[in-house]
């Protein structure tokens, strides 16, 4: 984990007709009319079973369902959008005998499916109807290529140098079976059935061309679950994402996306995704007092403000000391170590999911963070920060990196194109 993380999923404003109890214009094919008629809202608080009350400003269900991301564009979807409530990360390996032609046909199928599903329409063929009645629900589907994809397809000369394998870190405890992969798909949505529907459609589209290598499920807070929009919390209870770069920052495009003039040419406007399955040792973490947890992170647990005072976005006073002459924000605090200005300006856009995969035999929760970060070059983004964390982050005692992957994610597809076409047909 790092200090940089995407802000919490936005809380969309309710359309005017939703306030009148009318259905919002969404499809698959139409959103359940009863959602508006019965007044169900997200963020509703307790009461007897079958009865709920909510603050007046809670987000109507119809608004969450109608929110839509666009498939075609300069960049692929699923990178700059706000956090989604649920998601799936999945890597595929090409099947024996499958090469460039099969990969191109697969990406063509996947792109057609993603475009339809993101518009709230059924899959092009063999739709399962799992998401019937739901709107797009902010669905995004994002595709990328792993290091070994290029050798399998005879495209070694087109493999970016930025896709060279990540260096080993001393804190790694990596399971190779749950790492890497030829092809990467990230799915996110604000409705769990919509997200699963997309996952199932993508897996079915793979057919005989590719097989699942690994797959993990994640979640975040649902839009409307809090009284007002706020930065997300992780499973340690910490506000996580205060320092993320923002699209309004002057250097954002340069830090996160490959320039139009970059190499290789097919990666123009694309990005590189580092994916890490980071297990949180919650039993150990929860034994700490709140004050001790705050010393590890360097921020207040209640509101994310730096220990030196102010609010969540207040600057850290790194040189401030207490009455004993000790730094208020310890030298090993996670928030201090991950600051871009302490890492040569290294910046990455984090867009993670939390996960929970049950309990070990001794009752230890298998839970943590599905870390996904985006950058124009991982050697200038993820790697220098992780090296520094590896050397002295106080949080390292409470987490374990169990899987890792790096993928080249090309720019968005233009209308009539499929994702990766400039690589596979160039």
Keywords:
single chain; 426 residues; alpha+beta; 9 strands; disordered N terminus
General description of the model:
This protein has twelve helices and nine strands. It has 426 residues and is of the alpha+beta class. The protein has one domain. Strands 5, 6, 7, 8 and 9 form a five-stranded antiparallel beta sheet that branches. The chain has a four-stranded antiparallel beta sheet with strand order 2-3-1-4. Helix 4 (100-118) packs antiparallel against helix 6 (192-206). Residues 3-27 and 29-55 have low confidence and may be disordered.
Summary?
This protein is an alpha+beta fold.
Question: What would the average pLDDT be, to the nearest integer?
Answer: 88
Q: How are helices and strands ordered from N to C? A: HHHEHEHEHEHEHHHEEEHEH
Q: List segments where confidence is low: pLDDT < 50 over at least 5 consecutive residues.
A: 3-27, 29-55
Approximate strand percentage? 15-25%
What is the distance, rounded to the nearest whole angstrom, between the alpha carbons of the first and last residues? 37 Å
- Name the assembly state: single chain
* Count of extended strands: 9
Number of domains: 1
């Amino acid at each position: 984990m790092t200090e940089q993380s995407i802000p919490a999923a936005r809380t969309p404003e309710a359309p005017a007709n939703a306030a009148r109890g009318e259905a919002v214009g969404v499809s698959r094919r139409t959103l359940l009319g009863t959602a508006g008629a019965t007044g169900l809202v997200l963020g509703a608080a307790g009461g007897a079973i079958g009865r709920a009350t909510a603050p007046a400003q809670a987000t109507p269900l119809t608004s969450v369902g109608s929110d839509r991301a666009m498939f075609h564009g300069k960049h692929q979807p699923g990178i700059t959008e706000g956090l989604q409530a649920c998601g799936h990360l999945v890597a595929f390996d090409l099947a024996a005998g499958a090469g460039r032609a099969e990969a191109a046909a697969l990406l063509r199928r996947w792109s057609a499916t993603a475009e339809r599903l993101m518009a709230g329409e059924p899959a092009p063929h063999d739709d399962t109807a799992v998401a019937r009645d739901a709107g797009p629900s902010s669905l995004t589907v994002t595709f990328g290529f792993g290091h070994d994809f290029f050798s399998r397809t005879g495209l070694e000369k087109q493999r970016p140098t930025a896709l060279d394998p990540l260096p080993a870190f001393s804190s790694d405890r990596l399971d190779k079976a749950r790492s890497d992969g030829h092809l990467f798909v990230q799915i996110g949505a604000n409705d769990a059935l919509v997200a699963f529907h997309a996952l199932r459609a993508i897996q079915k589209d793979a057919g005989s061309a590719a097989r699942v290598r690994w797959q993990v499920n994640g979640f975040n807070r649902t839009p409307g679950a809090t009284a007002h929009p706020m930065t997300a919390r992780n499973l340690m209870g910490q506000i996580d994402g205060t320092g993320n770069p923002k699209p309004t920052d002057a250097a954002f495009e340069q830090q996160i996306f490959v320039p139009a003039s970059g190499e290789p040419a097919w990666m123009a406007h694309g990005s590189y995704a580092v994916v890490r399955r980071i297990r949180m040792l919650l039993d150990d973490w929860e034994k700490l007092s709140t004050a001790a947890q705050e010393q590890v992170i360097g921020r207040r647990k209640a509101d994310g403000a730096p220990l030196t005072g102010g609010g969540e976005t207040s600057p850290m006073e790194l040189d401030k000391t207490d009455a004993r002459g000790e730094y208020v924000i310890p030298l090993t605090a996670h928030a201090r170590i991950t600051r871009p200005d302490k890492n040569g300006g290294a910046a990455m856009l984090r867009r993670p999911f939390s996960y929970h995969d049950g309990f070990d035999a001794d009752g230890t929760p298998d839970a943590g963070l599905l870390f996904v970060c985006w950058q124009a070059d991982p050697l200038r983004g993820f790697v220098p920060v992780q090296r520094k964390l590896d050397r002295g982050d106080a949080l390292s005692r409470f987490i374990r990196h169990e899987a890792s992957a790096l993928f080249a994610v090309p720019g968005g597809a233009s209308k009539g194109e499929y994702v990766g076409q400039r690589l596979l047909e160039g």
